[in-house]
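Sample pair:
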Amino acid sequence: MADHKICPYPPCFILRYLIEIASFICVCILVSLSKNDPFEEHTIGNLSKYFKNVLDQDNTTLIAKESADNIIKNVSSGPDDNIEKIKIRKLISESFCYEIQDNFIRFKGKKLSSIFDLNYNKIHKISIADLVISCVLFVSLIIAGITIKNNNSDNCCAQTIMVISLLIYFLALIGRFILSFILFYYMEKGDLEKYDDFLDCKIVKSKVFKKISDINKYRNCFFAFVVFNVITLGIEKIERIYEYGKEIDEE
């Protein structure tokens, strides 16, 4: 009879512990980062603070931008299709940058959230729910792990506790997976990509906006949380294969 062992205990509890701790840390960071909306707290002021090509003279904002007619003329005169496509993409990119710049002019004196809405409030609430579920997952996993380690099959109470703990764990795991999808939805629905593309504009003083909000830390933490959830599901699949192989050997 073959001896199937993937880790010291039948479920991979040690790996699960590490992943749950990592997921818990990611959720804590998300809760902390989404607690306050920096775009709601920041008021749009002098445009020269945000853009490289803005000059304020007598309260009049002068925007130094190339004429769209000249750009289109240069595009149409390109002899090579690839060059033409590159110029068109450049035109679209510059058009986007100046469109956002026009929004800064229009919403001057108002909150930055008038231009960029990253759904901080909704993400904060979902992150708190994820944090609660992560705590339930971690506690139930510890209880189940201790019960399995003791391996007291004669104790009905211990067996009942183990079954209940594992049931709570799997239900919480499903709940957290669903919340991860909802979190992903609000991340994508918000202006995260729009804001990120805006920071790539040559006319933007990106360092100023990075002080307002560390978007990379915010996004990387979220994606790390999603990856840990996927790994957890992968472990579930491995354990099922392990159990299936064990049953075949016993037969």
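The longest strand covers residues 54-57.
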